[in-house]
Design brief:
Layout lengths: L24 E5 L7 H8 L5 E5 L4 H9 L4 E4 L5 H10 L2 E4 L8 H9 L2 E5 L4 H5 L4 E3 L4 H13 L1 H16 L3 H15 L9
Parallel strand pairs: 1-2, 1-4, 2-3, 4-5, 5-6
Helix pairs in contact: 1-6, 4-7
């Protein structure tokens, strides 16, 4: 079995931004139950930060944000790709502590812009993130909290992950994916490709 990823087709570009250690902005894209915002609220309790949530938020989650004293901003309007990219640019940390993802596009988008990513160690996320993100247990508040604190406190580690992220994005580049398919077809059907480069 050979695994070939699909092309992410991510058009977001690198954007330098000094990391705000005193009050980092944490970007959370999506609010479906698998996005695990309830556990995220518990994990961020007592950490000086601003949680920016893109998506519709239930009254239960609003209450959880209030109860855990999480400074937050909720954007429920539908955003254009340009507006979403701007949110990534304004953030310090990209949050994706999901319990389930088919892929995990915010990982690649965060990598592309140059932000440290905190994501889960389950389903597709470790495979997509590679060595470009902090992996946490999405079912464990302590693990998740430790991941965000590491993203905030470890300057060298954070920079290393950001640099790894730029390399990680290249794994999903359209040309790279096309070449991987081509090489696989050559291996499967050598007679069809005889004499071709």
């Amino acid at each position: 079995i050979e695994v070939i990823f699909f092309s992410s087709n991510c058009k977001f570009s690198k954007c330098e931004k000094p990391f705000c250690k005193d009050d980092p902005s944490i970007l959370q894209i999506g609010t479906a139950p698998n996005k695990n915002i309830s556990t995220l609220c518990e994990a961020l309790k007592g950490i000086a930060c601003k949680l920016v949530i893109i998506g519709r938020v239930s009254s239960d989650i609003r209450e959880k944000l209030r109860r855990n004293s999480i400074d937050h901003e909720i954007c429920e309007d539908r955003l254009t790709d340009e507006q979403i990219e701007q949110r990534y640019r304004e953030s310090d940390i990209v949050s994706l502590p999901s319990t389930l993802e088919g892929f995990g596009m915010p990982i690649i988008e965060g990598n592309s812009v140059g932000r440290v990513v905190v994501t889960s160690n389950v389903t597709s996320m470790p495979e997509v993130a590679g060595d470009s993100a902090i992996l946490v247990d999405p079912y464990c508040v302590k693990s998740m909290r430790a991941g965000f604190l590491l993203a905030i406190d470890d300057d060298q580690g954070r920079q290393r992950l950001i640099e790894n992220g730029f390399k990680n994005v290249m794994r999903f580049d359209t040309q790279v994916i096309a070449e991987e398919h081509y090489q696989l077809y050559k291996k499967l059907f050598p007679n069809l490709f005889r004499g071709r480069k």
